[in-house]
Amino acid sequence: MSKTEQVNFFFSCQLKKSSKYGVLLTYINQDESDFSRNELILHSLAAFWLPFAYKYCTNASRQEIKQIALSAVEQLKRHIQFLEDSFELRVNSHLLEVVETEHKPLSASANEWYEIEDFETLQDLKEFKDEDEIFTNFTS
User: Fold this and answer.
1) Is the pLDDT of residue 14 over 90?
2) 105-140 burial string, b = 16+ CB within 10 Å, else e?
3) Which of 50, 79, 86 is nearest to 67 (CA)?
4) What is the three-class DSSP state of 50?
5) Whole-model pTM over 0.70
6) How far is CA 49 from CA 39, 53, 64, 93, 113, in A?
7) Which of 5, 60, 74, 136 has the fewest CB atoms in 10 Å of its CB?
8) Would you place residue 24 in the very low, low, confident or very high pLDDT band (cuts 50, 70, 90)?
9) What are the tens digits of pLDDT across the range 29-43?
């Protein structure tokens, strides 16, 4: 009988219940959700980070990684549509168009990912903090 190698991952943190992450984790911990806890967490993580995981933690080919990245982009697009439908929003769809670009090497440092030229527009976004007025207004 062969034994399959497994990854055990435990996450624990203590947050103010009224903080944005406290509210998020309260939502994830609900039993009334339409999605399981594992679905909420793993699908979200995969959409954001699975291509990087395959790039830095496997011997997958560049083409395989590119396919995984395209799949992640499609998952994010579907989630954007879900957000739009759920909250009666419309996002400018031209911002979500996937086009071929020349290869630019990515930094292996998790702390430097935002400095990559491809992510330059992310630097213009306001950093989210628990103290942001928008979040404290909703949780007061």
Assistant:
1) yes
2) eeeeeeeeeeeeeeeeeeeeeeeeeeeeeebeeeee
3) 50
4) helix
5) no
6) 15, 6, 15, 22, 11
7) 5
8) very high
9) 998 888 899 999 999
Q: How many CB atoms lie within 10 A of CB 61?
A: 10
Cα(93)–Cα(80) distance, integer angstroms = 10
pLDDT one-digit tens code per residue, 82-123: 999 999 988 776 555 555 566 555 544 444 443 333 444 343
Distance CA 49, CA 55 (A): 10
Identify whether the C-beta of residue 96 lies closer than 8 Å to the C-beta of residue 77: yes
Nearest to 50 by CA among 75, 72, 80: 72
Structure tokens at 49: 């980070």
All residues at 6 or more sequence positions from 50 whose CB lies less than 8 Å from its CB, including other chains: 68, 71, 72
For residue 33, what pLDDT is reported? 80
The residue written with tokens 């560049």 in the block is 62
Dig out the tokens for 31 from the structure. 């039993």
Length of the chain equals 140
89 token code pair: 């929003």
**Neighbouring residues of 123: CB distance < 8 A, sequence distance ≥ 6:** 114
